[in-house]
Amino acid sequence: MTTTIAALATSPAPAGIAVIRVSGPDTRRALAALFRGKQDPVQSPRKMIYGHLLDHKTGNIIDHALAVYMPNPFSFTGEDVAEFQFHGSPLIVQKMLRSLFAFGASPAEPGEFTKRAFLNGKLDLVQAEAVADIIEASSERALQLATEQLKGSLSATLTSIGEPLRDTLAELEAHIDFPEEDISPEDQQTIQTHLEQTNGAIQQLLGTHSYGSLVREGFHILLCGAPNAGKSSLLNKLVGKKRAIVTEISGTTRDLIEESITINGYQFVLCDSAGLIDTNDKVEQIGIELAKDKIAWADLVLLVVDATETDEKWKSALELIRHDAKQIWMIINKIDLDPHAIGKIFCESTICHRNFYISTETQSGLEDLRDAFVDEVAHTKSALSDANSVVTHERHRRCLERASDALTESLDALKNNVPTEVVCAEIRTALTALEEIIGKTYTEDILGRIFAKFCIGK
Asked: pTM of the entire structure?
């Protein structure tokens, strides 16, 4: 990299401490020009040095600060890196950044520090994505998975899958180079077994994506039902605060209201929606359409029913959601007003997979409901079998699907005595797909889409 970049690495809001990060070939010159301390940070690398930040144009002191210098290649980016820590005033931050830019540094793009770490071989692409996942982790389990990926667990698994595949490819290519030596039936069976085992390992890894994406993105739960069934009250009780307005007036909720909660280390994203009912109110109609559009987003739909209602308005709501919902649980609310509703079957098990009897007023049944949320995610985890790694990103899943499809094609070609060149071409396609995940093969478009999701300064 020929440019030197700088950016704020902490929140731009007022805080006790702010950190500005600098990386690139002019880092040492920037330290010499903009920092004065009792020691020269360049002469004392990896040590915090106390001193003053200086305005590049006037030489005036901007603030008291600590500076640390990390020489290449032993830094996060693999380049010369410096960090300045000082009082977290937005004004001081702006003055220091202006001094760095006046000196000649360029503003860092989102994720540019991590991108440089990847390009300089300090991280592979899975580990680079894990940096962002750690920053964004909103649950203990999401943090655990991201930390494991930063340590290289998924990368190691992918490497172990790819190595025997390369050996198989080399063996087949040798037969192409020496066509007089036909592949013996025994060798063909061995190659077929290796390809099947590799494809099986990829399929096992693909099987972890459902759990991995649930942990990383949260388990999505949509609350639906007729007006005044208690959807908003249920949301408020589950999140432990008054997030949605609750009144006796029908149609109070017209927009989607999302809130996240964490139970047993798992994140659950709850979404309250407008009551599903025929209405002439245009605003309510918009809210109902939003609720219907949200069904595809939900991993689970809670159909909230008023235990005291006699006109069975919930049936209309059920018809609107039953065909698109992945899974429906019926939540019979207000059992404090009608205890006889407990145990009553409102909906067939083929449509509503589970029934829960609750009261948002007394909070009866809510703990069982929370436990059921956790059990649902744990059930997904049970499908992991003996997998050593977990796939959390859609990008990884797509690459693994491509690799598996290519290996399936190679096996079909091998079994049908298609020319060896075709078998090799499919194996190369599979290897390329695996290499894309960890970044051995990449395009600028792939890097752009990945690092654009990062914060500036990361």
From this structure: 0.84
